[in-house]
């Protein structure tokens, strides 16, 4: 396993895992820190290029907003969609309490 | 193997012709494909799901259409395999992930409707690296796929199941998706044709998203003509995909015999530096074959393409981290309960995603996070422009570019699983195409130590016509022994 580099520390892993809603075991934190540092060190080659005069490309196409006429069309059947949910109740998705609220 | 009764299956064009004319029954074609799958699937693991009953029923409907004097379409009765990240209504779709295990989509991807409308018969959903993230199909939550040319080796990835299913003769055609090489690299490693079309040419509606500005669906096939036939069927505008190009492309199947006389072909010299000697030799031989057919062939340096890999591993994880936020245990797939929503989300995602997906989500989250956004993601987007400019400059002098598809032949299972960066380098020559949104394909050309080597043909946006003309010439000049399908080799039997 490569050395943990300054470019991706253990703390960085803990921080991004929380942002990304991932729970990691302590052993996983070290493993990912090493691997992500090695990847980031490699790709960091491009961070040193002078691109001050280069525009960004976010997408290969000139993206335009695509609108359709505001007329009712068919949608997926609600029951068929809810049948795939881990939990549904009364025609809605059922989830655990949010912000400590208990229904 | 001596004493074998294995027969090379018919290609898609001939199959459809025979079914349309009533000379063959779709039912028999599909039964034969299912029998081939039954014989070798246990050793190869190309499929996550084989849709035996649905396939037989669909084939019988095709036969009924023929019996009624109607035409079922250009893929009449042709068995097809679909990568398991294409949504199929009523058929489990996993994306190779535990987080979607058991999910039954309530709708079909547009390409699934297109192939069915053309008369093709879906026989199953093929294995892939989880969410198409990988270059070996070893990242599937359901175990690796084995390469039919040598079961100790990977088929490439992420569309390894589709590539191996075609190479093993299970099906003459399959669909995959290509975000950084996931169609072309496994095609090269399995000795079949694989095509990444121009971004926007094929609808992405119903393709489970990985990196939306890079993802594109495309065909696998045994022959260039079969690949062209399948691409003609799935190409075209779809109002359900806001990035779908509103173009009516010229049918590719009509161009295949036009040759390459006078076509300007650039051999990308930067791609030959680190390619293995046998791969570089195959590219040189392919260039000679094109020159022999009347093309004007020259080497060209396009150094900015070598920046592609770094830009890709900033852009693709960033897009993936955003796309995969939807797997939160609320609406579909896995849920691991917790005392509140946030803990339920985290427990579900930790249990449902595999290590490579977690790595990419974390990398993407990092490069998009406050303080790093411009240094990493913003810079990668500017480098993406440099890659596109490199191509644009080269295409002022050349009609098409050629190079290797993969730096090496198929590698051994397990060889790169502990070193993510080494795995990423498998896509060094395929990634620039995705960044630019261009088309490219891989066509089998040579054999190296008993394993196939593909040659890549690249073209500017909507340059599929000239790309297929080149591929057809390369197919005629290729070592016939380098082309699948082959009888799958068994573990422990030396090549």
Would you write up a description of this structure?
The complex is a heterodimer of chains A (103) and B (495). Chain A is mostly helical and 103 residues long. Chain A has a domain at 10-47. Helices cover 32% and strands 4% of the residues of chain A. Chain A contains 3 helices and 2 strands; from the N terminus they run αααββ. Chain A has helices at residues 10-19, 26-43, 78-82; strands at 88-89, 92-93. Chain A has a two-stranded antiparallel sheet. Chain B has 495 residues and is of the alpha/beta class. Chain B folds into 2 domains: 12-305 and 384-482, Amidase signature (AS) domain (Amidase signature (AS) enzymes, Alpha-Beta Complex); 306-383, no CATH class. Chain B has an 11-stranded mixed beta sheet, sandwiched between helices. In chain B, β2, α4 and β3 (121-126) form a beta-alpha-beta unit. In chain B, α9 (308-323) crosses α12. Chain B is globular and about 65 Å long. The relative contact order of chain B is 0.14. Chains A and B meet through α1 and α2 of A and α9, α10, α11, α12 and α13 of B.
Helical stretch count of chain A? 3
- The overall number of domains of chain B is 2
Radius of gyration of chain B: 21 Å
What is the third-level CATH name, the topology of the largest domain in chain B? Amidase signature (AS) enzymes
CATH superfamily of the largest domain in chain B: Amidase signature (AS) domain
Which features characterize this protein?
heterodimer; A: 103 residues; mainly alpha; B: alpha/beta
Topology:
The complex is a heterodimer of chains A (103) and B (495).
Chain A: H1 10-19, H2 26-43, H3 78-82, E1 88-89, E2 92-93
Antiparallel strand pairs in A: 1-2
Chain B: H1 12-20, H2 26-44, E1 47-50, H3 52-67, E2 79-83, H4 110-117, E3 121-126, H5 160-167, E4 173-177, H6 184-190, E5 193-196, E6 217-221, H7 224-234, E7 264-268, H8 277-292, E8 296-300, H9 308-323, H10 341-352, H11 355-368, H12 373-397, E9 400-404, H13 420-424, H14 431-436, E10 440-448, E11 451-458, H15 464-477
Parallel strand pairs in B: 2-3, 2-4, 7-8, 7-9
Antiparallel strand pairs in B: 1-3, 4-6, 5-6, 5-10, 9-11, 10-11
Helix pairs in contact in B: 2-3, 5-6, 9-11, 9-12
């Amino acid at each position: 396993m490569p050395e943990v580099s300054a470019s991706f520390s253990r703390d960085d892993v803990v921080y991004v895992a929380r942002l990304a809603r991932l729970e990691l075991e302590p052993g996983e934190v070290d493993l990912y820190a090493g691997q992500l540092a090695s990847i980031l060190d490699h790709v960091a080659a491009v961070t040193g290029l002078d691109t001050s005069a280069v525009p960004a490309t976010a997408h290969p196409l000139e993206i335009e907003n695509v609108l359709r006429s505001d007329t009712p069309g068919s949608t997926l059947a609600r029951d068929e969609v809810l049948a795939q949910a881990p939990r549904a109740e009364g025609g809605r998705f059922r989830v655990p309490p949010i912000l400590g609220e208990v229904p | 193997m001596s004493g074998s009764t294995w027969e090379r299956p018919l290609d898609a064009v001939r199959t459809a012709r025979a079914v349309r004319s009533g000379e063959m029954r779709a039912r028999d074609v599909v039964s034969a494909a299912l029998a081939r799958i039954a014989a070798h699937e246990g050793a190869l693991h190309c499929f996550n799901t084989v849709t035996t009953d649905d396939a037989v029923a669909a084939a019988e409907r095709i036969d009924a259409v023929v019996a009624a004097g109607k035409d079922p379409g250009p893929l009449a009765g042709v068995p097809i395999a679909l990568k398991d990240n294409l949504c199929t209504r009523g058929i489990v779709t996993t994306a190779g992930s535990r987080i979607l295990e058991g999910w039954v989509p309530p709708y079909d991807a547009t390409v699934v409707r297109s192939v069915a409308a053309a008369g093709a018969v879906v026989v199953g959903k093929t294995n892939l690296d989880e969410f198409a993230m990988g270059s070996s199909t070893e990242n599937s939550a359901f175990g690796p796929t084995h390469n039919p040319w040598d079961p100790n080796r990977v088929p490439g990835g992420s569309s390894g199941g589709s590539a191996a299913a075609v190479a093993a003769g299970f099906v003459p055609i399959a669909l995959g998706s290509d975000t950084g090489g996931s169609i072309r690299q496994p095609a090269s490693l399995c000795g079949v044709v694989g095509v990444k079309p121009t971004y926007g040419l094929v609808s992405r509606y119903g393709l489970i998203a990985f990196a939306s500005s890079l993802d594109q669906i495309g065909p696998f096939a045994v022959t260039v003509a079969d690949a062209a036939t399948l691409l003609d069927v799935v190409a075209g505008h779809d109002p359900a995909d806001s990035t779908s190009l509103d173009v009516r492309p010229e049918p590719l199947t009509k161009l295949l015999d036009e040759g390459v006389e006078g076509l300007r072909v650039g051999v990308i010299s930067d791609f030959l530096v680190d390619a293995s000697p046998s791969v570089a030799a195959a590219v040189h031989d392919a260039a000679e074959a094109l020159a022999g057919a009347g093309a004007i062939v020259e080497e060209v340096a396009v150094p900015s393409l070598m920046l592609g890999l770094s830009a890709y591993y900033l852009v693709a994880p960033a897009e993936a981290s955003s796309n995969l936020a939807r797997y939160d245990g609320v609406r579909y797939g896995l849920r691991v309960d917790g005392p509140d929503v946030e803990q339920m989300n985290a427990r579900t995602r930790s249990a449902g995603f595999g290590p490579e997906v977690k790595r990419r989500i974390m990398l993407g989250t990092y490069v998009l996070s406050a303080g790093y956004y411009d240094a990493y993601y913003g810079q990668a987007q500017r480098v993406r422009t440099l890659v596109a400019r490199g191509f644009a400059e080269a295409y002022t002098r050349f009609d098409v570019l050629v190079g290797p598809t993969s730096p090496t032949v198929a590698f051994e299972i397990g060889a790169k699983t502990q070193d993510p960066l080494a795995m990423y380098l498998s896509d060094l020559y395929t990634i620039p195409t995705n960044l630019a949104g261009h088309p490219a394909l891989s066509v089998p050309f040579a054999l190296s130590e008993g394993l196939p080597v593909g040659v890549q043909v690249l073209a500017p946006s909507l340059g599929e016509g000239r790309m297929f003309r080149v591929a057809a010439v390369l197919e005629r000049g290729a070592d016939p022994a380098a082309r699948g399908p082959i009888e799958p080799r068994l573990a422990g039997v030396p090549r």
